[in-house]
């Protein structure tokens, strides 16, 4: 039987396809949500603006009626803004999902998944996590998403370069913050991409969404953290994010 027979495809291929479908479906869902919230008010704004123009662009402008039309335009614009707010709330659980935890535990929990990701690229993943770091207050799943997205990029970068991808995760810190970094064996970030990389939809990959780094930045900043990267003199790059220590229980 050939590989194209659905019954013969391996679990690796299924894993890849499921990830792809989850990503595309989420984007389709988001796009149709935005369209649903915005199409109606935008259509109304266009219609009211044309009517307003006709009322004013005449020998005796109908100022009173035009003022009413401006009010309607304002109302529709506010309703579009409320629509955007509703969509944002749908994706933002706020601070309710945050729990006190150790970064090293969170990384260890995700480690088997990251290993699977690296082995799909025939890469090698190493983890160095310091102990006795401060406790953090995190939305575990979202921070795991950040790490997953950075390791995914690191594997992609390493695969495009000569040799098999080498990815290293380091967790270190001091009493104020914990820094997690992902170092790769890629060619480093090209100078022309450096200023745009964290923007939504910026991608240089075939089939990439360009949402990986943008979502990482949004999540890290929502945790009052910072995210950045550096190209390394020996080649490759290091992406890092730094999250502040949680206040002590007694300080809260
Ligand atoms: N480790 C890296 N080394 C070199 N360039 C990188 C690295 N990580 C990201 N980039 C650059 O930044 C771009 C944006 O990355 P981002 O994760 O946002 O999207 P993507 O990886 O292209 O798409 P997706 O995350 O959907 O697979 C990439 O297309 C790539 O050009
Ligand atoms: Mg990516």
Show the helix and strand layout.
Elements: H1 11-56, H2 63-91, E1 99-101, H3 103-120, E2 124-129, E3 136-138, H4 140-160, E4 166-173, E5 177-183, H5 191-194, H6 212-222, E6 226-231, E7 237-244
Parallel strand pairs: 2-4
Antiparallel strand pairs: 1-3, 4-5, 5-7, 6-7
Helix pairs in contact: 1-2, 3-4, 4-6
Sheet bearing the most strands, described? 5 strands, mixed
The ligands found in this model are: adenosine-5'-triphosphate, magnesium ion
Low-confidence stretches: none
Mean pLDDT: 89
**Count of extended strands:** 7
Using the alpha-carbon principal axes, give the shape: elongated
Number of domains: 2
- Side by side, the strands of the main sheet go 2-4-5-7-6
Radius of gyration: 24 Å
CATH class of the largest domain: Alpha Beta
- Main structural class: alpha+beta
Question: Could you name the key traits of this structure?
Answer:
252 residues, alpha+beta, Helix Hairpins, Heat Shock Protein 90, 2 domains, five-stranded mixed β-sheet, two-stranded antiparallel ribbon, 6 helices, 7 strands, 16% strand, elongated, binds adenosine-5'-triphosphate, binds magnesium ion
Account of the 3D structure:
With 252 residues, this protein is an alpha+beta fold. It has two domains: 11-91, Helix Hairpins (Orthogonal Bundle), CATH 1.10.287; 99-251, Histidine kinase-like ATPase, C-terminal domain (Heat Shock Protein 90, 2-Layer Sandwich), CATH 3.30.565. The protein has six helices and seven strands. A hairpin with a 3-residue loop joins strand 4 (166-173) and strand 5. The mean pLDDT is 89. It binds adenosine-5'-triphosphate and magnesium ion.
């Amino acid at each position: 039987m050939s590989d194209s027979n659905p019954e013969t495809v391996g679990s690796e291929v299924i894993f890849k396809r499921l990830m792809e479908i989850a990503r595309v479906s989420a984007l389709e869902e988001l796009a149709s949500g935005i369209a649903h919230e915005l199409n109606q008010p935008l259509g109304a704004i266009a219609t009211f603006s044309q009517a307003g123009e006709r009322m004013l662009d005449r020998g005796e402008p109908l100022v009173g009626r035009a003022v009413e039309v401006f009010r309607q335009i304002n109302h529709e614009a506010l309703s579009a803004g409320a629509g955007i707010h509703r969509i944002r709330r749908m994706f933002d659980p706020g601070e309710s999902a945050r729990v006190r935890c150790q970064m090293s535990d969170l990384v260890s929990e995700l480690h088997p998944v990251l290993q699977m990701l690296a082995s799909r690229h025939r890469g090698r993943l190493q983890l160095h996590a310091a102990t006795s770091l401060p406790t953090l207050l995190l939305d575990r799943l979202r921070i795991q998403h950040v790490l997953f997205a950075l390791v995914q990029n690191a594997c992609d970068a390493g695969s495009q370069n000569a040799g098999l991808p080498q990815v290293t995760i380091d967790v270190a810190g001091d009493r104020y913050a914990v820094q997690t970094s992902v170092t790769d064996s890629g060619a480093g970030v090209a100078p022309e991409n450096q200023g745009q990389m964290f923007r939504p939809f910026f991608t240089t990959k075939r089939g990439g969404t360009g949402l990986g780094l943008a979502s990482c930045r949004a999540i890290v900043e929502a945790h009052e953290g910072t995210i950045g990267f550096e190209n390394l003199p020996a080649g490759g790059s290091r992406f890092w994010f730094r999250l502040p220590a949680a206040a002590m229980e007694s300080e809260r």
